[in-house]
Amino acid sequence: MLLGIIGAMHEEVIELKEVMELIETSEIGGYQFFKGTLLNKEIVLVECGIGKVNAAICSTLLIQEFSVDKVLFTGVAGGLNPDINIGDIVISTDLIEHDFDCTAFGYEQGVIPRMENSKFKADLELIDLAKKVATENFGENRVFVGRILSGDMFVASNEKINWLRETFIGECTEMEGASVAHVCQILNKPFVVIRSISDKANHDANMNFDEFVKLAAQNSKIIIEGMLNAL
Fold first, then answer.
1. pTM for this predicted structure
2. Would you say 119 and 96 are in contact if contact means Cβ atoms under 8 Å apart?
3. What is the domain class of 2-230 according to CATH?
4. pLDDT tens for residues 118-131?
5. Structural element, H or E, at residue 21
6. Are 170 and 96 in contact (CB under 8 A)?
7. Rg of the chain over CA atoms, in angstroms?
8. In whole angstroms, how far apart are CA 59 and each of 31, 140, 186?
9. What tens digit of pLDDT does each residue of 139-175 get?
10. Which of 35, 61, 47, 42 is nearest to 2 (CA)?
11. Which residues are catalytic?
C-alpha cells in the first residue's frame, strides 16, 4: 500500500520529511514529491501550497503520477466550534467549499451546480483510525470529528465565524481540505483530513497562527505517525 500525505505549508510537511527515509524526489509542475518510507510504510509526501487551486492541482498529480492508494491531508486550521481550543484536533467527516456561491441561481451556499454531491465524505475506516490515534495521544475532550470548511480566505472575524458555523455547522475552517476531498471523490480515492487548531478564526487569528502553527504541525505529525503504525 502506498500512502499519499499532503500538507499545505512548509511547517506542516517538514515535521514528517525530517523523520522519513527518502528514496527519491520528483518535481512535477513545480511541486516536490518526496517518495520513501516512514515507520516501514511506503509514502509520498508533498507540500501543496496555500489555497484550493494549489491543493487540487497537487492532489491530482499525487494520485495520477504515483497511484497512491489512500490520501491523508494534515495541517492547521481555525476553530469555529466554541468548544474547540488551540491545539485541539479536528478529523473530517465531510468537507464543503464554503466560498462556492451560486445563490443567485437558487442554490444553497456551498453547493456546486451540476454535481451530485457538494459535501465530500471522508473514508469511514480512516476517520475511525485517526480518531483512535488522536484520542490515545491527546484525550477524548481534545478530539472533534465533524465537518471541515474550506475557502480561499483566512478567516479572522467573529462575524465570519458565526456565519460559517450557523450556515454549515462546521467545526473548523481552512483553505485546502475540501478541494483535496473534491479531487479524491472524483478519482475514487479514500481520504481523511486531519487538522490541528492553530487559532480561533477571530480578530486575534493572525497573531495566534504565527505563535501556534509549529505546535499544531507537531500534533498533526503525531497522529499521522500513529496511523501509519496501525495501517
1. 0.93
2. yes
3. alpha beta
4. 999 999 999 999 99
5. strand 21-28
6. yes
7. 16
8. 10, 30, 11
9. 999 999 999 999 999 888 888 989 999 999 999 999 9
10. 42
11. 12, 199
